[in-house]
């Protein structure tokens, strides 16, 4: 036993002596000399051009826009109006008695205290927190009633014809001149932090009277028509189309709209809920809100964009639904035969706008999306997947939009081409590449387009949507301008 132990120990010592402490060359020592990896950095150059943003791209923004704005820098004109419906709370109720209806009798002593002879009133209030252009500029606004409901199960786009929902040969409910700065309201009130800028549009009293009479109708179940929002829209108010028909230089972002129905009635309880003997008629307002719970459609009309789109020494990004930029990536020059693409990056140099162009606002963030995936991205309520779509924000310090790594997109495009060529028994050469490009002309093209993240109450990003806030920027590039550099870092074996 002792002899065996000694022999075993001796063998262990020999093994320890034969091992080197230096293992730095272990990996390369077992690889053939021809397999030594080499990291390379190469710049390739693609091209770019401007395109009109397709107006049938889906947008789910809850913001509506109203007005007309002529941009001096670009010569373009943006006209904006919107369609809105109104929400009705579940089992809505008017008071037990409303003045002005024959079935409700009031004492002469109460009636004699009325200050006017308008028992019913209707108003449309448009609330806004932001505008582009001149806040003192006059605009003429028209409000048209819808005679056809906007179907919540149908996808509508900004190129939707609003006359599908209203009769343009008729007469608008209201036609008024307004100014965003409402000087009818006292300065002391407008300066309050709690004051919300709004436009008050007086509608015909008959709208309020008809709604209230329907509610109290004895020949039909009027109250059932106010039981929820779908019933209200179908039977009471299908909605309004609000448009600007005169004026220029102001574009309002409408945060919300409210249909207000004013009436007079008896109050049998005070603010604390205690029963009282009414001695006068009280004036009240029933509100029906427009917003994300109901359908809202922006109707945009962009004019005079052809000159910008055809410019050849630069490209543009312009929203809403104005101009996007198409990039043709130099994928024919990038080979993946014996290499792995570690990263691929590109930067887009922006030129700062001159004063006055959409209040000098550049898009905050843009999407780079494969052209073949453009429609699906917005239809699917998507977020960038860093494979066929990428998002970046403006670097204001350098006026650049930089995509740090689109290598997965580059690799996927090249691999898809290789698989198609192999399946069609074609070689990866000039002839094969030409056939593939003919079959898939946009295989190497991506679109740059302004987008805006939509967030929840905790600011967590839910999805990305079209940016319909007015913005504009000129980018370095164009068919005859500077080429777009794509920096590729690869490991070559």
Radius of gyration: 33 Å
Helix/sheet category: alpha+beta
Task: Note the total helix count.
Answer: 10
Residues in β-strands, percent: 35-45%
Mean residue pLDDT: 85
Extended strand count: 21
Distance separating the two termini: 54 Å
Main sheet summary:
10 strands, antiparallel
Low-pLDDT runs of 5+ residues are 1-29
Outline: elongated
Helix percent reads 10-25%
Question: What topology does this entry show?
Answer:
Layout: H1 2-18, H2 26-29, E1 38-52, E2 64-70, E3 77-84, H3 108-111, E4 121-133, E5 139-145, E6 174-178, H4 187-190, E7 198-203, H5 205-215, H6 229-235, E8 240-246, E9 250-266, E10 281-290, E11 296-303, H7 306-309, E12 314-319, E13 323-328, E14 339-351, E15 365-370, H8 374-379, E16 389-395, E17 400-403, H9 407-423, H10 430-439, E18 445-455, E19 461-466, E20 471-476, E21 484-492
Antiparallel strand pairs: 1-13, 1-21, 2-3, 2-9, 3-8, 3-11, 4-7, 4-9, 5-6, 5-8, 9-10, 12-20, 13-18, 14-17, 14-20, 14-21, 15-16, 15-18, 16-17, 18-19
Written account of the structure:
By secondary structure, the chain is of the alpha+beta class. The protein is built from 10 helices and 21 strands. The strands form 2 sheets. Strands 2, 3, 4, 5, 6, 7, 8, 9, 10 and 11 form a 10-stranded antiparallel β-sheet that branches.
């Amino acid at each position: 036993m002792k002899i065996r132990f000694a022999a075993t120990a001796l063998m262990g010592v020999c093994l320890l002596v034969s091992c080197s402490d230096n293992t730095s060359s272990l990996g390369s020592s077992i690889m053939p000399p021809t397999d030594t990896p080499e990291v390379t950095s190469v710049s390739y150059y693609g091209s770019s051009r401007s395109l009109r943003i397709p107006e049938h791209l889906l947008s789910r923004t809850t913001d509506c826009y109203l007005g007309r704005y002529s941009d001096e820098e670009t010569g373009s004109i943006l006209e904006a109006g919107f369609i809105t419906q109104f929400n009705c709370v579940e089992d809505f109720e008017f008071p037990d008695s409303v003045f002005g209806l024959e079935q409700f009798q009031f004492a002469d002593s109460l009636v004699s205290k009325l200050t006017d002879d308008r028992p019913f009133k209707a108003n449309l209030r448009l609330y806004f927190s932001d505008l582009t252009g001149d806040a003192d500029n006059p605009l003429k606004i028209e409000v048209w009633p819808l005679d056809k409901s906007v179907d919540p199960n149908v996808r509508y786009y900004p190129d939707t014809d609003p006359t599908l929902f209203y009769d343009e040969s008729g007469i608008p409910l209201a036609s008024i001149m307004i100014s965003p700065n409402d000087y009818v309201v006292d300065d002391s009130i407008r300066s309050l932090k709690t004051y919300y800028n709004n436009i008050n549009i007086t509608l015909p009293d008959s709208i309020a009277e008809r709604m209230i009479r329907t509610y109290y109708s004895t020949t039909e179940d009027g109250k059932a028509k106010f039981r929820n929002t779908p019933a209200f829209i179908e039977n009471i108010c299908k909605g309004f189309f609000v448009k600007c028909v005169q004026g220029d230089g102001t574009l309002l972002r409408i945060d919300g709209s409210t249909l207000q129905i004013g009436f007079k009635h008896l109050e049998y309880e005070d603010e604390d809920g205690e029963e009282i003997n009414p001695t006068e008629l009280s004036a009240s307002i029933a509100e029906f809100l427009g917003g994300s719970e109901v359908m809202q459609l922006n109707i945009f009309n962009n004019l005079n964009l052809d000159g910008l789109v055809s410019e050849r020494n630069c490209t543009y990004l312009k929203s809403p639904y104005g101009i996007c930029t198409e990039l043709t990536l130099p994928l024919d020059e990038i080979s993946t035969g014996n290499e792995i693409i570690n990263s691929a990056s590109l930067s887009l140099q922006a030129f700062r706008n001159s004063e006055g162009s959409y209040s000098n606002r550049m898009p905050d963030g843009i999407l780079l999306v494969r052209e073949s995936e453009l429609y699906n991205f917005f239809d699917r309520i998507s977020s960038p997947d860093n494979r066929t779509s990428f998002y970046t924000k403006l670097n204001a310090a350098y006026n650049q939009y930089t995509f740090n790594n689109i290598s997965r997109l580059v690799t996927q495009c090249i691999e898809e081409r290789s698989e198609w060529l192999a399946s069609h028994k074609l070689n990866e050469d000039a002839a094969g590449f030409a056939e593939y490009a003919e079959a898939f002309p946009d295989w190497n093209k991506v679109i740059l387009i302004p987008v805006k993240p939509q967030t929840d109450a905790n600011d967590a990003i839910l999805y990305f949507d079209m940016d319909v806030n007015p913005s504009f920027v000129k980018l370095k590039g164009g068919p005859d301008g500077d080429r777009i550099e794509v920096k590729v870092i690869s490991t070559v074996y």
